[in-house]
Protein 1
Amino acid sequence: MEKSTYIGLILAVIAVGLGMVLKGASLVSLANPAALLIIFGGTVACIFIGFPMEDLKVVPKLFKIMFTSQALVSKSELIQQIGEWATVSRREGLLSLESKAEEIDDEFLRNGMRMVIDGNDPEFIRDVLMENISAMEERHRQGALIFTQAGTYAPTLGVLGAVVGLIAALGNLNEIEALGHLISAAFVATLLGIFTGYVLWHPMANKLKQKSKKETQVKMMMAEGLLAIQAGEPVLSINQRLAVFLSSTERTAMEEKSLEKT
């Protein structure tokens, strides 16, 4: 479970809801069918117009990604694992890693290991792995773009909803008692548009981008580690090569763990 997503949504609802109450606005006014239809229905319609059906099929999966924790291997554990493989490889040869490859859960790492074991050219392996990473980044970019565009459309649709509401209000100027209610209802669409655009869709797009960045870093580490194993580099050199992907905190923790083992 991605706790930050749930915490953010709860805080957003509380902040806006409590703010409305403190300002003297009624929360009941948000239950405006016309405004909800214009904002949510209009945003969905814009997304369908703007993206091919093939891209939109992944939207349910994108929501799942935002609400579940990212299952990525720890960078420090990955460095340790690659170091162990490098030690075995230098001692017994690359073919000794064949049994290890079958135990790898990550498809990207497993396929890369098999290419190394098969003795493929290092440049070929690098090209294949980099193309895989590039394709993954493009898929992730397209997914995040859907939410970014939704965040762009929603506030504008809020203005559209306000205009529609004001047209209705101006058409009932003879009913003074209902005029205030109609004007108030007109701006509900604007509130919902801004809220969904800047509190929901844009932050969700940002979370998808951040998760993509983390996954890309891990896969880059895998690629560099596999190529280093193939080149027969010593474990210390591999550790130094891969340590650049770690933050200062992660690097310190890994060094402390190594000292404890020795």
Protein 2
Amino acid sequence: MLQINQLSNKGKKTNDSPTFEQPLSLLRSCHDKIIHFSSSLYKLSQALHKDGWTPQLETSADQIRHYFNVAGPEHHKDEEEHLFPAVIALDPECTQAQSMELITLINTMIKEHVESDLLWEELDKMLAERTAEFNTLEQMAQQFARSMSEHARIENEQIFPYAEQHISEDLFKEMGQAIAKRRGVKL
């Protein structure tokens, strides 16, 4: 039996929860959820081989679809409209070798966003239609889970630490306010 639950902050202090005032913490939390839900999608695809579309698996599929149709696009916008431009603006002329490497990496991350969005569109359609092509779904879900995990790892280990070291607290605060405003959240 597959159970898809939202990640919780059990055991964490309330003040450790990500906020818009700490956009990198918010983005890392999103990465955790992306990994969780993409892994859950792969587990769902495996469970379908055994059980077919049960009411519980339909509910799980709908939870996964909701996450990637609502939060996924917002996460990409957070990075592409706010974080990435702020990192690039630190050295737009690429006067340092590290700047060129980061800009190249950011371009790769944006390309991967497009690729993952296209793969998700196919997966979403299969889930919505309650496909019987379980082998295809499983292969695509496995590819999606692997790519999401690797993508998040690269951003967490390479782009985010650079941003933490070089972006000012004031700019992070502005970034968080812009993210909140774009999402319709009043601070």
Protein 3
Amino acid sequence: MTRENLVGLPHRVLNEAMRVGINVDESDASAVFFHVDQKTIYSKVGEAFENQIEMMDTKDALEKYPWLKERMWTLVDKDKDEYTWEVAESWSGGYFMYIKPDAKVTFPLQSCLMITTENSRQRVHNIIIAGEGSESQILTTCAQHQETREGAHLGVSEVWVEDRAKLSFTMVHHWAPETVVRPRTGVRVGDSAEFVSNYICFTPVKDLQMEPKALCDGEGSKAIFNSVLYVQPGSNVDLGSWTVLNGRGSVTELNTRAITRANSHLISRGTIDGNNDDCRGHLECRGLLLDEESVLEAIPILRASKSGAELSHEAAIGKLSEEGITYLMSRGLSRDEAVGVLIRGFMDISIMGLSPGVRQEIEKIIDLVASVS
């Protein structure tokens, strides 16, 4: 279903989308997509980008492009686990994004996958193809309406970054305290191509487990995974990223910054496989515990099958600096204000290379989180 403009969407859907960073001013987006519960309710490409982008529900894309059936389930195994199997057996759609060869998309493509019904199990299959030589940014939010507390999101995503393409993919998760979340993502990066994944989650979630996997198959291919997490009380999060360096001159960086609070548990994983004599990878995890009731585990894994592979990792877990808090308090801030300033600094998103508009919206969320910490 397509509407002429976003004003026609349900008011509570628009309000929730704005709260999690979606800009409803269509002039600031190349394309906009909304999938609510089990149905796509809006999909539109801006007039200026009609010859550069295609965006539609995945089921519609399968009808339009028969060859797409041959690509589906090649980067994610449908028998990987019970969740991928469930999506394969019963899925409601998802987004299909095709950035055409050599297209230079100056505004982000925006998508919002939202749960608004209590106890709903949302099952989607998303496909992204960044054509040869294209450059684009995607901002996708997976959210739950604040009036619902319990549900499940099962999302399969397959991403092809073709030769010489550059794709920046930013995902913001905004869940509820009793929600189970199971994303399953596979990425293939071609010759001289670059894929940047930015993941942000600051809200409570009952149980989240994800480990996107990128295959750097192309010569000179590059994959970067950046994650910034604020794990709220009662949340159980098992988050990882995994890059396989197959191509000559392939490179990867895995960066995680995480904060845990009372009665929360975070496992931060990172895996790099070096399968070429000329490949490089670095993994870094920095964590803060705000109290003695949370648990943070960092699990870096480096595997090299070729002698020329250069792989490294750093991991550090600590607490907020009392010296820093004292200094800020001496400058006139209260203790709570000082803690908020340090948290904002720790959750620095400058490493993500976001466009100014996307960065501004995410910084609003960080300010809100820091102010109530």
